[in-house]
Structure prediction request, 512 residues.
Amino acid sequence: MRRSLRAAIAVLTLTGAGTVATGAPGHAALPGWGRPTITTAAPQPGGPGLGDTYFPDYGNGGYDVAHYDVRLRYDPDTDRLSGTTTILARATQDLSRFNLDFLLDVDSVRVNGWAATTTTEGVHELVVTPSRTITKGQDLTIVVRYAGVPSETLVGGYTGWTRTDDGAMAVNEPESAWWWFPSNDHPLDKATYDISVSVPTGVEVISNGVQPRPPLAEAGNRTRWSWRTTSPTATYLAFLAIGQYDIVTDTAPNGQPVVNAYSATLGELGPAARASVERTAEIVEWGAGLFGPYPFEAQGGVAGPVDGIGFALETQTRPVYGPGFWRRGANTSVVVHELAHQWFGDSVSLARWQDIWLNEGFASYAEWLWSEEQGEGTAQELFDFAYASYPEDSGFWQVRPGDPGPSSIFDAAVYDRGAMALHQLRLAVGDDAFFAILPAWTAEHRYGNGTIAQFQALAERISGLDLDDVFTTWLFTAGRPDVPGSAARKAAPPVEPTSWAKIREAHRLLVR
Ligand SMILES: [Zn+2]
Prediction:
């Protein structure tokens, strides 16, 4: 998680397309009942965003995507990416035109077989005007042919596409898809994916889900790799890792396929990477015991190259890890963090980026629970140490995890204070209620979206308590909250739990 253009985008969108979105996918207004409705209004353009409070132009209005078929050709020598993405969608309003979020050069767009015209607007808006009007409820097949050099396609000086010595990585949050496939780029619009990439033979391509067929030889000494994910997936959770990888396959205790991949460039970091990522199936089984059934069809992890990303991301079914996590030996904290996101962030996604605590607070608290399970420090000991380790006058306490601001969604406070907030909730409701709330949340919002307000309502329903104080104090109020025994803690700082060094190391690379 991390890395962005947020600052650049904030400036650039001031001059970008203006209107704010109406109608998130699946939230169309109900028709009036009792008498027939006669619609005379002319079809309207789909909105250029979904009204996200932090990123108003992310995603688009007027349609809901069901599936992306991303069929690409990539050449590591030149970083040239070309291909066709076929989008299966349904119109949620009568449309005169609609937007896709995309940056590469478009050769052509067809909508239900008919050629459409395109223009670009704002930072990342591709405006598609079909030759025939689209009516609400209509099925759409949108075929976009394109090509470009993603590493040279910059927004505010930045690209979310990482070119490496032996290939490339499309791994970034919250912006990633813009550089490799056209999309409705917001977690409110999830879809399934078929992703296939042709590369020179000898290069590996890793992506989400399972391989519906083995790599297939193509003319010109090339090989096409195919991946498929059948669970609803947010756009930023689709990924590509292209390069020299050692792929390790296995079957998890629950019968699912496990696909792990290790960059050949890892060298002496390789054993620590394997000692961490090879525990994936074990950690998934542990998580299922606490958070509810594992939501997806496959498991795994990708240990990226030494010149790739510097962070890690919870890409769906298969997180990707930068090399920095292995520099001081194995680190299961980061693996626990990214796998916990499969429940918190991936299956249950935020509905607006402001609610990032629902992702990062929970994934961070999972690290505390894992520490407790491993006998390396209880969650209470970690709370005490984390609480004491940020001085009262630290800027850390000025960031509110429930509304950190668009440039601070990956601030340390969202992670560490976010975990503290969950621990305070646990203390307030007791273990029985707390460990009932977590799987209830993942069950009720499985494959969908949720808000902090909905989580609070669920916690209050299960515990029977008014929890406004806990949420307001820990998520929405600046300053270090008092806790029982605050004075004593200040006088005698707690002993550092064994797991803290690994947790801090993981978070050092995750937060910004
Ligand atoms: Zn995270």
Observations:
- The chain has twelve helices and 22 strands.
- Residues 1, 337, 341, 359-360, 363, 510 surround zinc ion (CB under 6 Å).
- The radius of gyration is 23 Å.
